Recover the amino acids of this structure.
């Protein structure tokens, strides 16, 4: 019965030192996954709104499409955002022409997982979304 009187304080500290980095890694993974998921969903919404605006507007500019899509309020850093419209603004379109909007966001993660192996290799996923619609108005 000698073991009943031993102190276990040192083992608790050792177990805590092993568990805290694992828990921190799990929390950071959940945060990163949530951020990527939120931005992916936002890009889908932006692409749908932008193609809808372009399909019902006879004359549009790229900035008008970006403003109408709500990208400024949905994305954390609009400087990393790219929107491409086909056909380009200013091109004559007819009713029924296909309009495609491609959106892209260069996501910057909090932690570079590849930095553990090679710190010179950056890791930044590019998130993309596309929406297609038929023109409902003519610009001619």
């Amino acid at each position: 019965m000698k073991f009943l009187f031993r102190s276990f304080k040192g083992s608790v500290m050792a177990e805590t030192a092993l568990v805290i980095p694992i828990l921190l890694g799990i929390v950071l993974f959940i945060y990163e996954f949530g951020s990527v998921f939120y931005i992916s969903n936002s890009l889908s919404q932006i692409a749908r709104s932008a193609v809808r605006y372009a399909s019902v507007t006879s004359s549009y500019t790229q900035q008008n499409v970006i403003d109408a899509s709500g990208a400024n309020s949905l994305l954390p850093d609009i400087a990393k955002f790219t929107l491409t419209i086909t056909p380009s603004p200013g091109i004559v379109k007819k009713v029924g022409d296909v309009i495609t909007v491609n959106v892209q966001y260069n996501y910057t993660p909090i932690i570079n997982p590849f930095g553990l192996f090679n710190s010179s290799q950056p890791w930044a996923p590019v998130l993309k979304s596309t929406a297609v619609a038929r023109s409902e108005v003519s610009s001619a």
